[in-house]
Amino acid sequence: MTVCLMMATIMQALDTTIANVALPYMQGSLSATQDQVNWVLTSYIVSAAIMTAPVGWLAMRFGTKRVLIVCAVGFTVASMLCGLAQSLTDMVLFRLLQGIFGAALVPLSQAVMMAIYPPERRGQAMAIWGMGVMLGPILGPTLGAWLTETWTWRWVFFVNLPFGIATVLGLIAFMKETDLREGHAFDWFGFAMLSLGIGALQLMLDRGETLGWFESPEVVAEAACAVAGLYFFLAHSLTTAKPFIPIAMFADRNFTIGVIFMFLVGMILLATLALVTPYLQLIVGYPVLDSGFLLGSRGVGTLISMMVVGRLLRFMDARILVFFGIVASTWATWSFVWLAPETSALTFVVSNIVQGIGLGLLFVPLNTIAFATLPAALRTEATAVWSLIRNIGSAIGVSIVVAQLTSGTTVMHARLGEALTPWNLGLADPAAATLRGASAAGRATLDAMVTGQAALISYSNDFLLMALVGLATFPLLLLLQDTRAAQMSGGESAPALD
């Protein structure tokens, strides 16, 4: 059963990034602009984030096995539809559908893994499960690059078919159904307000750069809807008897701090990938396959840390591992600030591997700390919230860095252009005779050089922003409590799967 749960986890996590390297090809095929084609990424992440919220209720009401099977089937069908999309509208709609069905795969597989393993082996179980969650986004670009180069970008979606079929057949054959719980009505108002808040916030972040942010009535309306939706969700959850996200889980200090931690880690995990992919292809000029393999080097680091972290948790305080994870991932992100077109591939690979090691050391111990003292009765809903927060962080992170990249390039182009005057001594050099000429070719070459430098500066600023996000997690580490005693005893025993 562990293999089936891992396949479901990897299949869903893989699709958060497998399309990254294929975006330039989709952009031409679907007639989309650079900012529009990023909706292919954010639409999937946002729909998955919204639909993660009711996963706990669905599992209790209809049974974990049934929900997993239906979602695996729906995810596979939606993947095939994405591969057949003929326009950007089709692609975004099918990616939304894919995210809706994929939302339950990761949290439910995590909950089942925690239930079927005894308390003393739960750290190892989370290391196994975490490999799927971490390796999916990391290996996605490599697999996506190979499929795009070998066939077409459509195969990054068609590849889910055999894995989807194998997952469904495995779940049917090996998984036992959980007991159903009746009498727990779903909180539709709270769910609607949360969906409105998250959806409007993401639309504002995606559309703001194109429309001039708050100069646009649409962006102002989206911001108002986001604030109103999140406010009413919070107020309703604090006052209603049975909200669909139980507030009781946030009484656990480690879980609450861990959720904030995971939001920031989610930003770093996917936002850096969203930056590095176009950087390698557009700035450095690597072919799609080479850039995919370079991006995949981060998976090597993650594999190294995942192979040892489960064993280290048996005799080491998880907070120490989280500390070293923050140090490694933040250092690697900081090193990206100094990337240049002439930077060697080896330098990039080393930084990528270190970042992979850091993220691996972060992810599993953080899961262990957050759930070590949480009551077993809240575990299913808590895993849904955990995935929800990670997805929201990822979606917001991608939108922020893409918007900052677009606006930053424009601003830096204008600033650099201010220096291109007849009195610029650099242009007076004989070697720059072609550039200072009045010919259209000279002006175009000069503009391309300025645009390239402006983009390079903007990428560096974005990487610096992600490094600062990493630094912001250090104070949170001081708020986490030691959970070694709870890890040994397992706290409350997990419910058995009957």
UniProtKB/TrEMBL annotation:
Keyword terms, alphabetized: Cell membrane, Membrane, Transmembrane, Transmembrane helix, Transport
Matches recorded under InterPro entries: EmrB-like, MFS, MFS_dom, MFS_trans_sf
Single GO cellular component term: plasma membrane
PROSITE patterns, per the entry: MFS (PS50850)
Topology in membrane: Multi-pass membrane protein
Subcellular location: Cell membrane
SUPFAM superfamilies: MFS general substrate transporter
Residue spans crossing the bilayer: 43-60, 67-86, 92-116, 128-147, 153-174, 186-205, 217-234, 255-280, 292-313, 320-341, 353-376, 388-406, 463-480
Domain named Major facilitator superfamily (MFS) profile: residues: 1-485
Gene3D superfamilies per record: MFS general substrate transporter like domains, Multidrug resistance protein D
Gene Ontology molecular function, alphabetical: transmembrane transporter activity
PANTHER family, sorted: MAJOR FACILITATOR SUPERFAMILY MULTIDRUG TRANSPORTER MFSC
Family according to the record: Belongs to the major facilitator superfamily. EmrB family.
Listed name of the protein: DHA2 family efflux MFS transporter permease subunit
Originating organism: Siculibacillus lacustris
Lineage, highest ranks first: Bacteria, Pseudomonadati, Pseudomonadota, Alphaproteobacteria, Hyphomicrobiales
